[in-house]
Specification:
Largest sheet of chain A: 4 strands, antiparallel
Helix content of chain A: 55-70%
Strand order of the largest sheet of chain A: 1-2-3-4
Largest sheet of chain B: 2 strands, antiparallel
Family (chain B): Belongs to the YIF1 family.
Order of helices and strands of chain A: EEEEHHHHHHHH
Mean pLDDT of chain A: 80
Structural class of chain A: alpha+beta
Mean pLDDT of chain B: 76
Distance between the termini of chain A: 62 Å
Number of strands of chain B: 2
Radius of gyration of chain A: 24 Å
GO biological process, one term (chain B): protein transport
Keywords (chain B): Endoplasmic reticulum, Golgi apparatus, Membrane, Protein transport, Transmembrane, Transmembrane helix, Transport
Strand content of chain A: 5-15%
Structural class of chain B: mainly alpha
Strand order of the largest sheet of chain B: 1-2
Order of helices and strands of chain B: HHHHEEHHHHH
Shape of chain B: globular
Oligomer: heterodimer
Largest interface: A-B, 35 and 39 residues
Low-confidence stretches of chain A: none
Function (chain B): Has a role in transport between endoplasmic reticulum and Golgi.
Main location (chain B): endoplasmic reticulum
């Protein structure tokens, strides 16, 4: 047992690879001691500091993923305030990997199309909206909304999509991706009456990904 | 140093009871009421927060690092301004923004107009205090959203059509895209040259002409779609319909802009200059079906 901090009401102890935080407030009137003990596994504590340094905020990542997964729910524009590229990069890699599992080595195409698509959407959004966007924000949103496409391509590993059912499924997934992407863009950039106009180029971009997945 | 103290404590060494009382390795700032007097005096300045690795400590001297950061950001701002100024010389971003100020209702109405312009009454572009209204407010105003989206859709559709016929390869797609682009550039330059030679005083800017030339991509997309769905007959029917509609649309839209001497009743007076302008408008209109056929017939087999 190692004492790391010594003060009259807060004690931090290290024992057996855990950190114990003991808080004993002294109540003047009643002179009763109530204590609260918290223990944290050390690895969790270390990793949480590492993630904070790297700027990876798991709460935000989870929030953004849930926003993507539910395209019909309203969202507010503040979730895209910090540019977060870890999620999108992970999803791109996942898409490439699931395509690889299906026997198609298309990593170059995935990266190239994402880069071109991001650039195109960045130019279009800057021309169409009153608020300036950064390329990182556009890349982040487009990357997050790639998640349903990853699920489509993992489905394509087991069943072939070159049938009516596969094409219908691909169309549904394209619609899902572009609706979420346009919803987030419209909320972040405060554009009114333009959601379908933004959804169309997103649908074109995700359509190219779907072409890669299906054929 | 507090950092080293932290690292030392991570190894699970069982320390003896000598460290229990008054441990100098304080890692957490004591935020209880006031600093207790039992604190060793040298340490309070060095009790850092756990995850707060200050950047300034990487350079030894914080004054130098502040100066370097200020100079670097100043330089970056200057170069960004210079790049923006150069880009604005060739492509004025503000004028371009006018053409993209569209909304969904405008796009739907414009597409319907492109396909069926025969019942539309008022073709004039409305002005508000000397500047034209944005496409949001006026359905007659040209925009660049529809042509650019139609261009990209045309390229993708061409790729799909070739893929269905097993003739797809990325080179063919690139050739298709560059052919279409080159033809539009030729048409815009030709129209600009004609207007310059005839010294027509219009307010048609390059972007306006680009917009009107780009509307033919919508006709191209429809023709290719019908050709894919219904075969060669469907292709020719769609081609005829979209050509007529587009010719009518171009003539009615450009008439107001190119033929400037319009009397108060709206009738165009027939003198020599006006005749040349009329010929220019008709030539532009007649060029549309030719180019639509030229760019799409090889996609339908």
């Amino acid at each position: 047992m190692i004492k790391l901090c010594f003060s009259h009401d807060l004690q931090v102890l290290y024992f057996n690879n855990h950190i114990f935080i003991l808080y004993t407030p002294l109540n003047d009137t009643l002179q009763a001691e109530t204590a609260a003990l918290v223990y944290l596994p050390l690895d969790y504590l270390l990793m949480s500091f590492v993630f904070e340094e790297l700027g990876i905020n798991f709460q935000h990542i989870q929030q953004k993923t849930l926003t993507v997964l539910n395209p019909l729910k309203q969202t507010d524009g503040s979730i895209m305030n910090e540019t977060d590229l870890t999620g999108p990069v992970v999803f791109c890699l996942a898409l490439g990997t699931t395509l690889l599992l299906a026997g198609k080595v298309h990593f170059g195409y995935v990266y190239g199309i994402s880069a071109l698509g991001c650039l195109g959407m960045y130019m279009l959004l800057n021309l169409m909206s009153r608020i300036e966007v950064s390329c990182g924000c556009v890349a982040s949103v487009l990357g997050y909304c790639l998640l349903p496409m990853v699920s489509l391509s993992s489905f394509a590993v087991f069943f072939s999509l070159q049938s009516i059912f596969g094409i219908v499924l691909a169309v549904i997934v394209i619609g899902w991706c572009s609706l979420s992407a346009s919803k987030i863009f419209v909320a972040t950039l405060a554009m009114d009456g333009q959601q379908l106009l933004i959804a169309y180029p997103c649908a074109l971009l995700y359509g190219v990904f779907a072409l890669l997945t299906v054929f | 140093m507090a950092h080293q103290g932290y690292r030392q404590n991570m190894k699970p060494r069982a320390r003896g009871p000598s460290t229990m009382a008054g441990d100098p390795n304080q890692l957490f700032e004591d935020t209880s009421a006031g600093m207790p007097p039992s604190q060793p005096g040298g340490y309070p300045n060095q009790s850092y927060d756990m995850g707060n690795f200050s950047v300034n400590n990487i350079f030894g001297d914080s004054v130098v690092s502040d100066l370097a950061m200020a100079y670097g950001s100043n330089l970056a701002n200057q170069s960004k301004e210079m790049v923006n100024k150069e880009i604005n010389r060739f492509m004025p971003i503000n004028k371009l923004k006018y053409f993209f100020a569209v909304d969904t209702k405008y796009v739907v109405k414009k597409l319907a107009l492109l396909m069926f312009p025969y019942t539309h009454q008022n073709w004039e572009v409305r002005y508000s205090r000397d500047s034209p209204l944005t496409p949001r407010c006026d359905v007659n105003a040209p925009d660049l959203y529809i042509p650019s989206m139609a261009f990209i859709t045309y390229i993708l559709l061409a790729g799909m059509a070739l893929g269905i016929q097993k003739r797809f390869s990325p080179e063919v797609l690139g050739m298709c895209a560059s052919t279409a682009l080159v033809w539009i550039i030729i048409e815009v330059l030709a129209l600009l040259l004609c207007l310059y030679l005839v010294t027509v005083h219009t307010d048609l800017t390059t972007f306006d002409i680009l917009a009107y030339s780009g509307y033919k991509y919508v006709g191209m997309i429809l023709s290719v779609l019908f050709g894919l769905l219904f075969g060669k007959d469907g292709y020719y029917v769609a081609l005829a319909w979209t050509s007529c509609a587009l010719m009518f649309f171009i003539v009615r839209s450009l008439r107001m802009k190119i033929l400037s001497t319009v009397s108060s009743e709206g009738m165009v007076s027939y003198n020599a200059k006006n005749q040349i302008r009329l010929y220019i408008t008709m030539a532009t209109a007649l060029f549309q079906p030719v180019i639509i056929y030229w760019l799409t017939f090889h996609l339908i087999r």
